[in-house]
Design goal:
alpha/beta; about 35% helix; about 325 residues; Rossmann fold; globular
Length: about 325
């Protein structure tokens, strides 16, 4: 394995491997000095459980990745751990299907469906599009967040990685709240949080779409403290140009992290060893059926903002132009 000589730059580690637990354990060993915990910290692990489907679909976070993180925390004498996710009506079923429910029993961690949580409405200072948002109280009461997204293409945001995975902490209809000016709102929301660690499960990723995409054997785990840098590397691993991913670039412009590959200290395996070109064809076709462009044009952003603002409850598909 090699390490770049970039100094004073955020570190992002990549490890190639096919076993979720072992590969995650290896990547955590590389960056363990970057991560600080106190024994009394309450740690919230935020996976991606957008649908109640198994991790081998490429859609949901593998329980083996989460278990490796739990054991990493135990080695640091941290025991107050909660796994929490929300945003889709099948979250409880997703906990079972993904194996996260088994971790609750095996390791004595808490498992929380954030859809059922109480919430607090939080103002977002210096926001661009999302002025305030209802955040689950379990999230607000945690001392640190470990963000564990999946390596996936997204039909509107282009990718869904660390930044977008934070949408799961919102209580309420996330689509209605977020899907106009999505890129700006992803960044507004992310400005409220600074995860202690971001670990991208890329053992099996999903190309074409975030919910109904096709699995890709990427065989990689990506980890780092700077979520913008992690997402920059994750985009490159999927064969995409990070400079074309709007919310990643907006996050960097807002000072949330580094979005230039040449300013990131890459550790472990090189990107070239794990990169696979993820197809975005389905996402482009999906938006085209709505009459929208990929990526979304400014006119499309205006259309969606108006459509959501003047929502007709009898209209089933708010994205589609008439």
């Amino acid at each position: 394995m090699s390490s770049s000589s970039v100094s004073n730059s955020p570190r992002v580690a990549l490890v190639k491997g096919s076993d979720p637990f072992t590969t995650t354990s290896q990547v955590l060993k590389i960056i363990h000095d970057d991560i600080q915990f106190e024994p009394n910290d309450r740690i919230l692990i935020k996976p991606n459980c957008v649908r109640p489907v198994a991790p081998n679909t490429g859609v949901t976070t593998d329980a083996g990745v989460v278990e490796a993180i739990i054991e990493f925390l135990h080695d640091k004498d941290v025991w107050n751990i909660v796994i929490a996710e929300g945003g889709n009506p099948g979250t409880d079923k997703a906990f079972k299907v993904t194996g996260l429910k088994d971790l609750e029993k095996k390791h004595g961690v808490e498992l929380v469906n954030l859809n059922k949580d109480t919430w607090e409405e939080i103002p977002i200072p210096e926001s661009v599009a999302l002025n305030k948002v209802k955040i689950a109280r379990t999230v607000l009461e945690s001392d640190r967040i470990i963000n564990v997204p999946k390596l996936k293409i997204h039909h509107m945001a282009q990718v869904t990685l660390s930044l977008k995975n934070l949408m799961g902490v919102i209580v309420g209809n996330r689509g209605l709240i977020m899907h106009d000016k999505l890129d700006e709102k992803i960044v507004d929301l992310a400005s409220l949080f600074k995860p202690t660690l971001n670990v991208v499960d890329g053992i099996i990723g999903a190309e074409m779409d975030e919910v109904v995409g096709s699995p890709v054997d990427s065989n990689v785990i990506i980890a780092g403290v700077d979520m913008v840098s992690v997402d920059t590397v994750g985009s490159a691993v999927m064969g995409l140009d990070p400079t074309s991913i709007r919310h990643i670039q907006l996050a960097a412009e807002r000072g949330l992290g580094v979005a230039r590959l040449d300013h990131i200290n890459l550790c472990g395996d090189p990107i070239e060893a794990v990169m696979k070109k993820f197809s975005t064809e389905y996402s482009a076709r999906k938006l085209k059926t709505y009459g929208l462009t990929n990526p979304l044009s400014e006119a499309d952003h205006v259309f969606m903002k108006n459509r959501f603002a003047n929502r007709d409850p009898h209209v089933e598909d708010l994205y589609r132009k008439n």
